[in-house]
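Collaborator request log, item 7. Partner lab (contact: R.S.) asked for a structural prediction of DUF1501 domain-containing protein to inform their binding assays.
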Amino acid sequence: MSARDHVITTRPTRRGFLQIGALGLGGLTLPQLLRAESSAGIRTSHKSVIMIYLVGGPPHQDMFDLKPNAPREIAGPWRPAATNVPGVQICEAFPRLARNMDKLVIIRSLVGNQDGHDAIQVFNGRHPGKKAPGGGWPQLGSVVAKLEPPTDPAIPPFVSLCYPCTHGPYNEPGPGFLGTALSPFRPTGPARNDMSLRGITVNRLADRKTLLKSFDDTRRDADASGAMRGMDAFNEQAFGLLTSSRLADALDLSKEDPRTVGRYGTGDPTIFMDDNGAPRVPQSMLMARRLVEAGARVVTLNYSKWDWHGGANNSIFKREAEDFPVFDRCLSALIEDLHERGLDQDCTVVVAGEFGRTPRISAQVGRDHWPQVNCAVMAGGGMRTGQVIGATDRIAGEAVARPVTFGEIYATLYRNLGIDANRATVNDLEGRPQHLVEDNSVPLKEVA
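Returned to partner:
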């Protein structure tokens, strides 16, 4: 029996309910089936993505592509350790991930990376040096929100848990040419205070909605910029949020089992790593799981800062010794949590940064930017896991087998969401249909 069959729950999962229905409730129409599972208290499943951005570019050769036989100035101090998949080794600082390797896909040969700090390629799969339509390319969550309706009016389809970084290129690129109506909902910071009625009744809120609409009908007739359409979307979303507690509940970790919170670990969201990176906040991964379980389709988050050039008392290996164990713990907890809750078939997790790091350790005991090759980790989504895709040379400097592009990763994400990236299109500001991925990329065949 596989790990995914051991679902920890107090009521039947949707998958189990469908199996029971197929055996004993033959002849049900789809509406009848949906009503039956609703009455049984079972959540309607939906496809989702949790995107974890490792701010600043993680060191691939110290994490998932170690080269112990390389010269010392390249290999570094970390040793490879066995995983629960025979023949696959990762850094010894990741014992929990090693025990979950059967649930992971490690890509060691990600090519076509940019060479500067810019989060855009991680969030939309497109190289920022290439020509883009007016307004810019939209990120994944905005495209999904455009193509797929919300699973629930009270749950935004695209939620960003990213903390704003003072270094601008570390931040999400936004909805691009799709416009402000398809921006992510951002519940961190001041927005959390706007998610309650604070003394206003639901009936009174409905009266205000009617009054607002009467004013908006007049303004909309005179609007040619499209701004009113964005305001319409925001207003509808706001009313939905205020009249339902589902989103607030999903964001409230006090409602989670303390033992589960403990598995992930917690961090201080007010401490931004190296001042301009993101905070090291493991609980963001737990919050992401709660959001997709509540109905969000795409959740993005940024995690810590991985731009380790070295320097006085700040060597890359000192920073790795601080960050690696925390990351090992929270990412493993997320992967295990998805499997235990029966979400591993529906929710895809992807972890990546802008680029890899130089093979040679610098005089400052750091590794610099290296766009020639990068690594990424994927999990869930019903993919064939427990494998490594691609390989690099003896110093982890170049891909020598199965080069993978961001376009292929994105085509895979869209496929896992039920969207054919080469057939579906979204219109740019000039009304021209644009494909969802770069260079007609196709999904990774290895994970199908």
